Amino acid sequence: MSGSRVALAATLAASALGAFALSSTALAQSSRPYETTFAGEPVGPNDWILTIKGNAQITPKYEGSDKSSFVAFPSFTIRRATEPKRFAAPDDGVSLTFYGNPLVSFGVVAAYRGGRYYEDDRRLFGLSKINWTIEPGVFIELWPTEQLRARFEIRHGLNGSGFVGGVGLDWVQRIDRLTISGGPRVVLADGDYMDKYYSVTPYEAALNGRVWPFKADGGMRSIGAAAAVSYDWSDEWNTTVFGRYDYLTGDAGKSPVVRSFGSRNQFSVGVTAAYSFKTTW
Q1: What is the pLDDT of residues 260-272, one digit of tens each?
Q2: What is the annotated signal peptide range for this record (predicted)?
């Protein structure tokens, strides 16, 4: 997939996720103490904080690829102005909290997943195309201490790619306007997901000539870590730099697509600039 097509797909995904959030925000509640001001201005029950983000990332061209591609896309989030701002790691899905308190929160989540296209890598000749998709699901967050966060997500691709689950721990250190975070990541997937992204049929193997037939089963897809540094220039402006590493394990790491011309080492880096402002509806 070309950079422009990836950017367009990501933009469409961000718009869809935003529309989803806007249609559901009335359900979001929090039992944490309310903030009473934003950027020095008082807020009321009908006020919202809208955050518009510009994102730039370098990520693998497709799952298991040894090549990277650059993508830039917009996104946005929204929360009640009386609802406290919550920590979010850059690799979290776009989420909407149904219930939250200082120890636990849960709600719905959605994420964008890129596809696999012949124009991304000519070595994919003969292998089936995989279209990009949106993965809706649910999440739960636990805060056993003020600095330690555990997050669990389970999602299912709209392209029928099966279930994928993410488990992450983050140590969150706030130093005035600076926030440093990071920790381990584990990704698990069911048989449908693994089959779609990592299996090779005999027919595909015969056409390609560089890979062999392989049936991928469900299990642990990868282990890794993520880290981010975020700075609040003001209540309105924020910048975040982040990175993530995943090591493909299990049948994902054994896949001929990975072993023949891909890599078990998957790296992603990026930067996000965000602008928040108050609006009344």
Answers
A1: 999 999 999 999 9
A2: 1-28
